Predict the 3D structure of the following.
Amino acid sequence: SDVLELKIKREQEGYTFLTAEDKDLYEVIQFANNAFNPDWGRAIREGVLQGLPLHRILIAREGEKLVGFCIYGGYEGIPDRFGPFGVDPDQQGKGIGKILLNECLKNMRAEGLHGAWFLWTGEKSSAGYLYKKTGFEITRKFHVMKKSL
């Protein structure tokens, strides 16, 4: 109920939370590439080319400006694999990510999926805190190893 109240509040401020349409794809891919990581843009593009249904891509806008997106089932067609997911850094702290994440999980459940998982995030990042508050649990930890040559 708190997410629904937050969503209504943001909508009254001019935000929209919608399922992506064909016309949104280029913008979502560019947003992912430029605001986050080119690998995210590639994942979206490849997911769509492999048949990712557009109802699995959610977008958030402030007016006409794209400010966030959330995807599931985009990596190798695995429906319960969540992500990529991102909110414009200038928009963070307004609950946009919380709304997108919960809308995405609601849609996943409506499809009959029993869980959501993703590979990694910073445990102490804003995303990490959001995932923990939403009920995600850490199941594995990875360590980055490097060697100077």
About this structure: The domain at 2-119 is CATH 3.40.630.30 (Aminopeptidase). The mean pLDDT is 90. The first helix runs from residue 2 to 12. Residues 6 and 95 are 7 Å apart (CA to CA).
